[in-house]
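Sample 3 of the quickstart, ligand zinc ion:
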Amino acid sequence: MFPAGVTIDPKTGAVSPNTGTYTKHLSELRSIYHDGAEFDARLARQGDAVAYTVIEYREPGADIFFGTTTMSPGRIGDEYFMTRGHFHERPDRGEIYYTQSGEGVLLMQSRQGEMRSVEMKPGVCAFIPPDWAHRSINTGEQPLIFVWCCNQDAGHDYDVIVTRGMRQIVVERSGAVAYLPNPKFAAGN
Ligand code: PAN
Ligand code: ZN
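Result:
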C-alpha cells in the first residue's frame, strides 16, 4: 500500500482517481418521504431524476476510506431531497462529513432516539459520533456536495431508518427550514 493524492472537485464532487461510484434515483427512494401522494405526483409530472451520486476512493486493506456525495436540490412537496440515512453496523464507528458546496442539514439520531443537527455549508466539517444514524438533506437551490471519511469496516444498516424513518422531517415553511415530528415515525422505541 502506498500514499496517494486524490483530487476532489468541490463544484462537481468528482474524485480522481476513484474506485467506485453509484447513483440513487428518486424512484428508488419513495419510502423515505413522508408524503407518498406528493412523491407520485412529482414523478408523474417531472419524471425520474438523479437524487444523489456517491463516489469513493478505497485502498483494499486500509482502515479508512473516503469519497464524495453529490445531492441534487429539490423537494417532494414540502420535504427537501435527502439521502436514505443509516446507522453504521459497527456501533463503534463514527464518520466525518466535510461540506464543499451548497447548503443543507445533517440530521442525526442516537440509538436512544435523541436528535441533533449540524448545518452543512462550505467550511463546516461535521463530526458524526459512533452509533448515531445520519442523513444529509439538501435545503439549498444548488447541489450539496460533501466529502465523507470513515472506517471501511463500519458497514451500513439501512433497515432501521427505512422501516421506521427518523423522528424528525426537514421541510420548507414560508421559505425557511423547519424541523417537524415525522408523521410516519413508527411508535414503539
Ligand atoms: C455516506 C453515505 C452517502 C449516501 O457515504 O453513504 O452520503 O447516503 P446513504 O448511504 O444514507 O444513502 C456515509 O455516511 N457512509 O457511511
Ligand atoms: Zn455513514
